[in-house]
Amino acid sequence: MYRSAVKTLLIAPAARHRFSHLRTLLINSSRFSTVAASNHQSPNDECKPPQVQYAGSSSSAPSASSSSSESASSSASSAAEEAPRHEGQSPRQRRHRAEYQDEQARVLQASLHHVARLGWTETAMIAGAREVGVSPSIVGSFPRREAALVEFFMDDCLQRLIDRIDSGEELRNLIPSERISKLVKIRLEMQAPYISKWPQALSIQAQPLNVPTSFKQRAMLVDEIWHAVGDEASDIDWYVKRTILGGIYSSTEVYMLTDSSPDFGDTWTFLDSRVKDAFDLKKTIQEAQYLAEAVGAGIGSSLQGFMKKAFPVFSSLLHLFSLISSSASCFSGTNMDFDEKQAVVCDNGSGLVKAGFAGDDAPCVVFPSVIGWPRNKHAMIGIGQKEMYLGDEAQARRGVLRLSYPINHGMVRDWEAMERLWQHTFEKELRVSIEERPVLLTEPPLNPKFNKEKMVEIMFEAFEIPATYVAIQAVLSLYASGRTTGIVMDSGEGVTHVVPIYEGYALPHAIQRLDLAGRDLTDYLTKILTEEGYVFTTSADREIVKDIKEQTTYVAMDFEKELATSRESLELDKQYELPDGQVITIGTGRFKCPEILFDPSKVGIESCGVHDIVLKSIRRCDMDIRRDMYGNVVLSGGTTMVPGLADRLAKELSSLAPPGVRVRVVAPPERKYSVWIGGSILASLSTFEQMWIKKEEYMESGSSIVHMKCF
């Protein structure tokens, strides 16, 4: 009974009727009604548009006689009764409600011709009115202005899709998954002419007043597609299928917004892949829970976060499914024995510590992974000398401190310093009582067993936390990009890793490591600038060079060609102003610096470039998944923020890949923090609760429990 009631609420307003004029459904849904003109009109009344009243409004038309005004909810039969009242009036004055609505539809249809240029705006509607020879003042008859235009377009597209479904020609001989892909593609292709303006349409749909109609239209679309496929489910599968298809449609729609491939080829490949996965029942249920809970948690920087902002009500449906799943987990006995407080997510890198709370879309604090001790006991007299300085304080006083980096090339080398850094993170930066919160930590690929055990031991013994989990950094980066299968190139401050991942599991035999990353790029740029006559010797100068690297460098698509161009002209040079006001010119160092990622021999490292180690990693994977790896190369880490890196990597890999294999390099804009974002997503899922290592488990099994639960 409950399912029937919910289904009625969701679909009854959008039942699968074959409307002969569905594109006028919006206008016929009692939103608009005209108020007949009074018999007592001035000579100029003929030039005025009929007054319009919003359905349900108590306001009346400002006429001299109230008896001459019609209610906003007048029935069609009342039009005949009005006939005597309109005798002697011109045809323009005698038009009844249905005729006026047809005129509104003509205006909206004509307005679509101007959307690509003017956007989903009142200006486009005015242009549409002029195109069909109607006074622009008719725009005032639409209480929600541009929302009416977007909703009209959605209804029009659905009607056209229904017409193509009814023809049956395009779906004949297609299996269910192919039918779904075909119908979603047909529907999204209708938005292609307006793709540059579609984000504006999404924002209009997301406005509170417009959400109910927006959701109804999307529910109709999803239901139509499933019925065209032949689905007649009436049990829980009804919810699962529509939830999954809604997620596929929305994620493909968002993907399409940033697709620059010819004819949206990459979008259709993405769509086919998502539909293929959805037809695997196990993957379907997992993805439904992941999508529902991630949206419900409001992960703004991920794809799910975008969907939550764009489609709040649809997200509510997904969250409803999440709650159903969570309820089932409770009945099965899965429950945490600590307070439901936000988990702390801590990503410790060679250069930076990123920390914050699960469910947030960005880390709360980011500071250097460094600890400093005074070199001389009396070196800092008068400024309140401390025993040690951590993070930003140590960085600011590095000239008079002996610095220690607990993490070197991705691995923890000094556990005492690491514990102090964690303490500083929890107490001084996040300012939380860590004894009450679970903590998710990150680790590099191929982290030694001792290191994993030591992390867990410190968390439980030193900080007495209720639960913890240790996740591989590259896997979290992949989650942040909305994928569970792909190959991650993670390059931070101290080390570069290439990690192939299949269905959320890293493949250790194919992982590649390169001890060359951001710190090496900074050192090499310092060397280049020194050779050009600039002097950077102190530790403070090093930070300046690091900023120069981040502000001016780029990866050349063709290094030799770029070098030749720089010799012939100065167009590639860039000015940089130092803190003291001196302006220096950065020349060939702009592209020579990051080139060492592709040719480490330039700095004396006997190793392959990043493109070669990515290729080597893919070739060590099973033949059946290599194509998925080539098509999902995901960049992560601060060093990958160098402009041009993604394009150059794609070019190099394409030249090395087998013929016919498409290479796609994904460079998320937030990739500098993608490890942390992936951890935030993971730790916020209710289905993740069973994965935590609880203190009772640690007390019973010891630190070796980490190998059984974290892999």
UniProtKB/TrEMBL annotation:
PROSITE patterns listed in its UniProt record: ACTINS_1, ACTINS_ACT_LIKE
The UniProt transmembrane annotation reads: none
Q: Where is this region: Disordered?
A: 37-104
Pathway per the UniProt entry:
Cofactor biosynthesis; ubiquinone biosynthesis
Query: Which GO CC terms are listed, alphabetically?
Result: cytoskeleton; mitochondrion
Q: Which residues form the COQ9 C-terminal domain?
A: 211-281
Q: Which reaction does it catalyse?
A: ATP + H2O = ADP + phosphate + H(+)
Q: Which UniProt keywords apply?
A: ATP-binding, Cytoplasm, Cytoskeleton, Hydrolase, Lipid-binding, Mitochondrion, Nucleotide-binding, Transit peptide, Ubiquinone biosynthesis
Compositionally skewed regions (Low complexity) per UniProt: 57-81
Keyword Nucleus listed? The answer is no
One GO MF annotation is: ATP binding
Is Hydrolase found in the keyword set?
yes
Give the matching Gene3D superfamilies.
3.30.420.40, Actin, Chain A, domain 4, Tetracycline Repressor, domain 2
Q: Which SMART domains match?
A: ACTIN
What coarse category fits the chief subcellular location reported for this protein?
A: cytoplasm
Q: Where is it located?
A: Cytoplasm, Cytoskeleton; Mitochondrion
- Origin, by domain of life? Eukaryota
Write down the PANTHER family for this protein, in alphabetical order: ACTIN
Q: Which NCBIfam families match?
A: diverge_rpsU (TIGR02396)
Q: Which family does it belong to?
A: Belongs to the actin family.
What does the protein in this record do? Membrane-associated protein that warps the membrane surface to access and bind aromatic isoprenes with high specificity, including ubiquinone (CoQ) isoprene intermediates and presents them directly to COQ7, therefore facilitating the COQ7-mediated hydroxylase step. Participates in the biosynthesis of coenzyme Q, also named ubiquinone, an essential lipid-soluble electron transporter for aerobic cellular respiration.
Q: What is the protein name for this chain?
A: Actin
Q: Which organism is it from?
A: Vitis vinifera (Grape)
Instruction: Give the gene name.
Output: ACT_14
